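A student in our group prepared the protein record below, which I am reviewing. This is what I was given:
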Amino acid sequence: MGMPVTSTDDVTESKILLAEYDCLKEEQKTRIGFRDNLLYFTLAAATAVVAVTVQSGQSRLLLFVPAICLILGWTYLVNDEKISAIGCYVRDQLGPRLGELASAHGTVFGWEVYHRNVAGRTMRKRLQTAVDLFTYLVLPMVCTTAFWCSPTVQPLLVTTSLVQTLALAVLGWQFLRRAER
């Protein structure tokens, strides 16, 4: 038959805000899983490229690593930004609005504030930034440097590697910029 129609009396602003919260937290959870898997996938892809390069002796293949890291690193950053934006929205907009409607005497969705003030958070953020920079900047630059040092360097590929290096610098700057938050 279909879903029973509920009266509009059953729909309150609080219920709508709680439904929005549930949807946002589900999106955040999904994005966190995807973001974290990007790190593993990047390392696996880079390892595969290096292995093929070593087996074939074709150093130009190393230039695939910066390309992979640029694409996946940018995707990682975009997801990380959305994850943080959801937390900020819940903390600064949704929680206070729901608290006001419920006449709450404390913070609604307290975890959104509490976990940001836990001891060691700053150190963990710095270590995560170091891991991100190693994966998405240092690793591809090692491959680029190995390419530059190879005996079969071609001018067009050097130009390509220089463009990739510039793009990696921008990506690294974005990681550092995001780490300040």
Remarks:
- The radius of gyration is 23 Å.
- The chain has a mean pLDDT of 90.
